[in-house]
Amino acid sequence: MARWCASNGWPVHPLAPGRKTPTANCRDCGEQGHTHTNCPCLPAGRWCHGFHAATLDYSRIEQWWTTNPSLGVGVACGPADIVVIDIDAHESELPHRDRLLPGIPVGDAVDLRGLRTGFHSLAVLAALRGENSPADDESTLRVQTPSGGMHVWYRATDGRRWQCSTGSGKRALAWQVDIRAHGGYIIAPGTSTSAGTYNP
User: Fold this and answer.
1) How many domains does the chain fold into?
2) Which domain holds residue 18?
3) 62 and 134: one domain?
4) Given this model, what pLDDT does residue 168 score?
5) Is the pTM of this model over 0.85?
6) Per-residue pLDDT tens for 154-173?
7) Average pLDDT for 63-70
8) Do 141 and 171 belong to one domain?
9) Distance between CA 60 and CA 3 in Å, rounded?
10) Residues 9 and 55 in one domain
11) How many other CB atoms are there within 10 angstroms of residue 15's CB atom?
């Protein structure tokens, strides 16, 4: 999987076996002032600092995953020029309508009954914009997550530099919908975790 991602121009880095998080950093990473820019691990071909270790170097990729075949695969979104819509499907209590689509008023005329997951809030956003939901976009890579969510992959175009968003803060695209882009990573299709496999 790592080689396939790299062949698509998507720099890859290892994820801890069975997890969604990068492998552990070196001992020096806990020291104040130690950053990925001055860490000797990266120039030496070792992974460290999560997506900052991402590479397209086939020999390094071969070394990492041949030595440690249980590693998962992460893709550094910024260097890969990809923007991924990360849709969660955690059924939970609906937030107040002013937190459903951060920065976009959702009037009382919009019926929110039945809204339970990120798929629903993304559909509301798309409908308010007169568009189809990206979750239904068959023209791009869509990856089912083990928890029932979806990652919808797009190529960043026009030289734009998209930023990651998290949670339901003002930067989130919608309730239970985040953006994975510059400054973050996404789990590669085919990667397995203790929760299951990310299936294209």
Assistant:
1) 2
2) 2-80
3) no
4) 46
5) yes
6) 999 887 888 888 644 457 78
7) 93
8) yes
9) 10
10) yes
11) 22
